[in-house]
Amino acid sequence: MSTARLSNCRIAPRKLRVLAKMLRGMPVTSAINSLRFMNKSGSREFFKLLVSAVANAEDKGNSDVDKLVVRTVLVDQGPTLKRWRPRAMGRANRINKKTSHVFVEVSEPAVAAG
User: Fold this and answer.
1) Which end of the chain is less enclosed by CB atoms within 10 A, N or C?
2) What is the Cα–Cα distance from 34 to 17, expressed in whole angstroms?
3) Is residue 38 part of a domain?
4) pTM value?
5) Contact 93, 84 (CB under 8 A)
6) What is the CATH number for 62?
7) Which segments within the chain are labelled E, that is strand?
8) How many domains does the chain have?
C-alpha cells in the first residue's frame, strides 16, 4: 500500500471529485492511460499524483506494480483565496478561488478467502 498527497491545488474540489469518482477502483495502468488523454481540468494533476503513488510503491518494493489498483481517492477543500471584482456604482463583488487537497492510495487487490 502506497500513498501520494497533493496540497493546495488551485482547482475547485467539485471539479476534482468528478475525476476521483471515475478513478476509484480502477487498475493503475488503465487509470494512467485514461488520464493521459482526458480533457478535464484536473486530469494533469491526477496523472502526476498517480505516477507518484506508483513510484512510491515501487520504491517500497513489497508489491508488484502491474497489479496495483487505485484503492482510495479523497478530495477535500483547502483554503479559499478571496479576491474582489469591481462592479457598477462603486460596488464590489467577492470572487472565491477555491483550492483542494487530494489524497491517493494504491495497493494490490485483496484476495478473497475461501
Assistant:
1) C
2) 16
3) yes
4) 0.86
5) yes
6) 3.90.470.10
7) 2-9, 69-77, 81-86, 92-97, 100-107
8) 1
Query: How far apart (Å, rounded) are the C-alpha atoms in residues 35 and 81?
Result: 27
Digit-by-digit pLDDT tens for the chain (114 residues) are 899 999 999 999 999 999 999 999 999 999 999 999 999 999 999 999 999 999 999 998 877 888 899 999 999 999 999 999 999 999 999 999 999 999 999 998 876 555
Is 43 strand, coil or helix?
helix
Of 63, 64, 32, 71, nearest to 48 by C-alpha is: 32
Residue 46: how many CB atoms within 10 A of its CB?
Answer: 28
- Residue 70 grid cell: 487505485
**Residue with the three cell numbers 469591481:** 86
